[in-house]
TrEMBL record:
<dbReference type="GO" id="GO:0005737">
    <property type="term" value="C:cytoplasm"/>
</dbReference>
<comment type="function">
    <text>Catalyzes the last two sequential reactions in the de novo biosynthetic pathway for UDP-N-acetylglucosamine (UDP-GlcNAc). The C-terminal domain catalyzes the transfer of acetyl group from acetyl coenzyme A to glucosamine-1-phosphate (GlcN-1-P) to produce N-acetylglucosamine-1-phosphate (GlcNAc-1-P), which is converted into UDP-GlcNAc by the transfer of uridine 5-monophosphate (from uridine 5-triphosphate), a reaction catalyzed by the N-terminal domain.</text>
</comment>
<dbReference type="InterPro" id="IPR005835">
    <property type="entry name" value="NTP_transferase_dom"/>
</dbReference>
<dbReference type="GO" id="GO:0009245">
    <property type="term" value="P:lipid A biosynthetic process"/>
</dbReference>
<comment type="pathway">
    <text>Bacterial outer membrane biogenesis; LPS lipid A biosynthesis.</text>
</comment>
<feature type="region of interest" description="Linker">
    <location>
        <begin position="231"/>
        <end position="251"/>
    </location>
</feature>
<keyword id="KW-0573">Peptidoglycan synthesis</keyword>
<dbReference type="Pfam" id="PF00483">
    <property type="entry name" value="NTP_transferase"/>
</dbReference>
<feature type="binding site">
    <location>
        <position position="377"/>
    </location>
    <ligand>
        <name>UDP-N-acetyl-alpha-D-glucosamine</name>
    </ligand>
</feature>
<feature type="binding site">
    <location>
        <position position="228"/>
    </location>
    <ligand>
        <name>Mg(2+)</name>
    </ligand>
</feature>
<feature type="domain" description="Nucleotidyl transferase">
    <location>
        <begin position="6"/>
        <end position="212"/>
    </location>
</feature>
<dbReference type="InterPro" id="IPR050065">
    <property type="entry name" value="GlmU-like"/>
</dbReference>
<keyword id="KW-0961">Cell wall biogenesis/degradation</keyword>
<feature type="region of interest" description="N-acetyltransferase">
    <location>
        <begin position="252"/>
        <end position="459"/>
    </location>
</feature>
<dbReference type="InterPro" id="IPR038009">
    <property type="entry name" value="GlmU_C_LbH"/>
</dbReference>
<dbReference type="InterPro" id="IPR005882">
    <property type="entry name" value="Bifunctional_GlmU"/>
</dbReference>
<feature type="binding site">
    <location>
        <position position="366"/>
    </location>
    <ligand>
        <name>UDP-N-acetyl-alpha-D-glucosamine</name>
    </ligand>
</feature>
Amino acid sequence: MQQLYAVVLAAGKGTRMKSKKHKVLHPVCGKPIIDHIVGQLRELDTAKTILIVGHLAESLKDHLGEQVLFAEQEEQLGTAHAVMQAKPLLEKEPGVTLVLNGDHPLFTKETLAKMVEKHRSSGAAATVLTALLDDPTGYGRVIRRTDGSVDRIVEHKDASEEERAVHEINTGTFCFDNQKLFAALALVNNDNVQGEYYLPDVISILKEQGEQISAEVISDSNEAMGINDRIQLAEAEALMRQRILRQHMVNGVSIVDPANTYIEADVTIGPDTIIEPGTILRGKTQIGEGCHIGPQADLTDVTVADNVRIKYAVIDSSQVDESATVGPYAYLRPGTRLGPETKVGCFVDLKKARLGKGAKVSHLAYVGDAEVGEKVNIGCGAVTVNYDGKNKHKTVIGDGAFIGCNVNLVAPVEVKEGAYVAAGSTITDDVPEDALAIARQRQTTKPDYVKKWLENRSK
């Protein structure tokens, strides 16, 4: 089978985005636009993927690194001119070249693979990916002959009224016989309203040379959507989010209210998990089987094992082991790991803390830079005092220890296995195994003090 190559056009300024960031680096469902495209091409196993860059080229090079090859278009003189910049890297290669725009994140692997297969099986010199739109305004029209074959592509600005009445549009995505592509590109001129070198003109040139041109009509026209401004960015986000949610539901995940659930592209979820409204799952989050997530759970790069319950919580770069419960109103910051069957309750803040199996921090506590053993109970208002103004220090609590309410553990400090710390204590020294530590002012009670004080005030 012939090798497959790809040329992705991303040299334009994207002025309608009104942004200092390159257009294709804006995210859709948690991933930059260009990452969606490069990811699909990786799935197609392209031998070379060449990104045509121009405006803000360095930011694209920094972002993609060695994932692609780069060719620079110093002047933006049109799409044909852009593809020509890949000539030194591709001209002599036999095979098939897929050309697509860098601002089309909604194409699926299946659509692109089907197009490539159509091109290979037809023996055509070029294949156009087309779509049927109710309102084709602004798009180049695909003009067919009476036998259904593709005759030419006419840009909207250059089209006649009769041609503008055609609803089949060019998606800007093509397959070419690679060597015939570069031979035809040399013949493209800029005799048009915009004074640009249009890639679709290659279709007319190949047709005039007697070559066969085929077309593949996309089954879902939404995939053909390009992004030129923030409005289209939001529309693409909504379309991709629906696709993501639908796939999770097909895979056995219950999503109570899809209209109010936000799941990014790289999230994985096991079957029989329930996702409640208001939940946002971001980044590389992985959810196990039989979990109940939400309502109002915001998870970023979190690994969640099976049968976990999380509600009204924010969790970032942490791990939650099987059968743990989190929330309501808990905050787990990076580096936290909750062991099996742990409980983290309301208004608890954890940072870089490891909780052993069955440990409980039920409410109103801060545990940071801490290692907490199995079946430890940390009471209401407890704080690991981990920061001395310059450095962070570690607290270690052994298995089975009990930390009373309103305790301050001034790190570095260790409460050893089975020890108890009395409520209201401020602990600065290690507590031995099975000991009781009390560190508070002895209570003094003065009888009738208030009565006498009020009498003196009234004089």
